[in-house]
Amino acid sequence: MGIVSSGFRGRRKRDVPGLPPGQYVTEDFPVLSAGPTPRIDPREWTFSFTGAAARRLWDWNGFLSLPHEHVTVDIHCVTSWSKLGTRWRGVPVDALFDGTDGASVSAREGFALFHSYGGYTTNLPLTDVLDGKAWLVHEFEGEPLAAEHGGPVRLLVPHLYLWKSAKWVDGLELVDRDIPGFWESRGYHMHGDPWTEERYG
Questions:
Q1: Alpha-carbon distance 153 to 69, whole Å?
Q2: Where is region (Disordered) located (predicted)?
Q3: What is the pTM of this model?
Q4: Which CATH code of 3.40.50.2300, 2.40.50.100, 3.90.420.10, 3.40.1190.20 fits the domain covering 21-27+47-196?
């Protein structure tokens, strides 16, 4: 049911040190989506933070004013390709919690349900998105993030399979239980660790 970009010319190199099991290296950046690509004007983009006592909303300019980091990471798709040394720029998820009453110890031990334009969701324990493990990115390889790769803003959680790095994000909802997201409710694993091949539930 996903959409795969044409011209997928992966070099199927599997004997790469540090590559998760079952993966091969590609030098392309395949596009896989569950539906049509939304085209979102950054001037109309917003991101909400809700749940517990937290209620915050950023527009594009407010988002750009948050602390930013440059990140170089490997990314791994559940369909078995990996792309090494990708370069991104964005806001660490930790920065969303700064000054937020809802970021109590109990909230930080809960779960995040990320929402995207078009209705996509994905679920993550907060332990997988805090402490420098995840970012909301809007640049890739020094350029604004293209719509087909999730622009204007996508989630980046590089230590998990790439379906957890939701494209076109527009919200983070704090929840007290692990609610299955779009792919998780369709048989994908609730966690998605590539190193232990948590592909399907």
A1: 14
A2: 1-21
A3: 0.88
A4: 3.90.420.10
